[in-house]
Design brief:
Layout lengths: L1 H20 L2 E4 L20 E5 L3 E3 L2 E3 L9 E6 L7 E3 L3 E5 L4 E4 L2 E3 L4 E5 L4 E4 L2 E5 L4 E3 L7 E4 L2 E5 L8 E4 L9 E5 L2 E3 L7 E4 L2 E5 L2 E3 L6 E3 L3 E4 L2 E3 L2 H24 L3 H20 L3 H11 L2
Helix pairs in contact: 2-3
Length: 298
């Protein structure tokens, strides 16, 4: 009797465990699904989608289903011969419209507008490459956007003109009060337009990044937040223009601080000074970041 009870208990735990982790979908040649679009509408909390690497898949995929805080939906690229799966094309190569997602191990490129567009909450994008997007590489919408964590990601050759940036982030304080844009261990370079990072998120947490090669500024943030050990490196084409605008730039930032203690301007000022303080001291640590990027592949 005791053995039967133990067996029933084990079966019950197995069922609960299976429900907790959700289903696993496999995408790739010879798999049950040939592209992400076939899977997106089937997802439920806790599900995992494994996308085979060294293959190119059509972009324009919208993820509308919601996960939960405890059971996020994971879209995971599996490297083959060291290469991530490539998602290419679509107006937005990936659009995160549902909450509680993790996107990792992906190569996003070639969207006719943006490569990664999010208007959801609790979104993670990690261990990915975002590149050659005609407008924003990564965009957080004004409406419907909450917290986003961006880490171990490379962004390059995105942006256009003065209004489309490599990364342009915003959050909606009414829909998701207290939202945070956190960016860490990322590498931005060779922007085609705008700023490297421009953020109007409610709170910004920017740590341990290498930012260079922006057309305007490497980093532009308009609200409160914190920054530590970020390295900005200006390209030669911008140095003369930066010197000419230096006095005006300092006046534009410092003047509102004297008039009123607005957290936005105080933070913008401390951000500039912090970059100057840390850039030289952290210079020795940056090659390790690049070696890690090379080790992990393109």
């Amino acid at each position: 009797m005791r053995n039967v009870t133990s067996l029933l208990l084990a079966c019950g735990l197995l069922v609960l465990s299976s429900n907790a982790f959700g289903a696993t979908y496999q995408v790739g040649p010879g798999k049950a699904y040939s592209n992400l679009g076939e899977v997106a509408s089937k997802l439920a909390p806790g599900d995992i989608v494994e996308v085979e690497g060294n293959q190119t898949y059509p972009g324009g995929v919208i993820f509308k289903k919601h996960g939960t805080a405890a059971q996020k939906i994971t879209i995971r690229g599996l490297r083959v011969n060291g290469k991530r799966p490539v998602l290419s094309g679509g107006t937005n190569t990936i659009e995160a419209a549902g909450n509680h997602y993790i996107f990792e191990g992906l190569d996003l490129t070639g969207g006719s507008s943006r490569c990664f567009f999010h208007h959801a909450d609790d979104i993670v994008l990690r261990d990915s490459v975002v590149h050659h997007c005609p407008k924003q590489g990564i965009l957080g919408a004004d409406q419907g956007s909450g917290s986003l964590l961006l880490e171990y990601t490379e962004v390059h050759h995105c942006g256009d003109g003065t209004k489309s940036h490599q990364i342009y982030m915003s959050t909606n304080e009414n829909d998701y009060p207290g939202s945070v844009f956190r960016m860490q261990y990322c590498y931005l370079h060779d922007g085609n337009g705008g700023h490297g990072v421009k953020s109007r998120a409610e709170r910004n947490e920017i740590y341990y990044n290498w930012l260079e090669g922006a057309v305007i500024h490497e980093l532009r943030a308009h609200r409160a937040g914190s920054c530590g050990r970020c390295v900005e490196r200006q390209g030669p084409r911008r140095l003369r223009r930066r010197r000419q605008r230096a006095a005006q730039e300092e006046y534009r930032i410092r003047r509102p601080v004297r008039r009123r203690r607005d957290r936005r301007y105080e933070w913008a000022l401390s951000l500039r000074e912090q970059h100057r303080d840390h850039a030289g001291r952290w210079e020795r640590g940056v090659p390790a970041l690049r070696r890690d990027r090379e080790r992990r592949g393109p």
